[in-house]
Amino acid sequence: xxxxxxxxxxxxxxxxxxxxxxxxxxxxxxxxxxxxxxxxxxxxxxxxxxxxxxxxxxxxxxxxxxxxxxxxxxxxxxxxxxxxxxxxxxxxxxxxxxxxxxxxxxxxxxxxxxxxxxxxxxxxxxxxxxxxxxxxxxxxxxxxxxxxxxxxxxxxxxxxxxxxxxxxxxxxxxxxxxxxxxxxxxxxxxxxxxxxxxxxxxxxxxxxxxxxxxxxxxxxxxxxxxxxxxxxxxxxxxxxxxxxxxxxxxxxxxxxxxxxxxxxxxxxxxxxxxxxxxxxxxxxxxxxxxxxxxxxxxxxxxxxxxxxxxxxxxxxxxxxxxxxxxxxxxxxxxxxxxxxxxxxxx
Length: 346
Hints:
Order of helices and strands: HHHEEHHHHHHHHHEHHHEHHH
């Protein structure tokens, strides 16, 4: 669907997936390192230090080994990571709820309206893979794996602090219960936040403000945590001014995700999954700036899809097929729209 839409508008599908929006920043960092800053007429200052280093580092490694461009390397990494994430999501769903829910969980995740991002040179597939496997390791009591994967996730995206929070809470509960008296829960808890904290501190030192430097860089991108005030203000503007389709869709999708979180929490889910998902929702809803990107920020929050997956297992086959076909149609068409017609940042 996307390729057909791209060719219709004289776009090269591969190039669009590999270079659109943030993908261009990641490939530039991979090729030249950090140091690019854009100054806009309205006073905004956008530094590439806002982008975490793990994904550009992987791109650099792939281009060193294979004769491919940075964009192609980014796509190969994203597609591989999306497949790895799907495997972990399935295993988590199967372990907690059974095979049908595991299968439907992967299906619904792949049919989210913003799932086209999983095919782009973006960090969401990599973060989701690392987060899902870390959560699976927590459920299996493999603390060193959980902490190490959380560390890598923390080097991939700002909101990956949610993975570290899940590991810390789960390890604290394990230690308090005394079920595992070894050093492994402690080691996992120690490793989990090191990636995120290390990069934030490194940017802070580089900017001359160890604790606030990274957040100042994010402010240059109009990204900051304001406890949802920016979200509320933009929602009010949506009700009074005309906006491009992507903005009301972002508001609708974010509201649906919040509703799904409430349903998920009421079902008394596994604590690590609840903490992980709760932190992701809090960051997305409580953060200001780039309102249109909030559904993308929630792509890694796959546990939100457990309630609809459970509902589909109880639905009649004809109803389940109808829902799946409707979601597929929405996802394919909206994904093609986002990459070929929308002028807003994804």
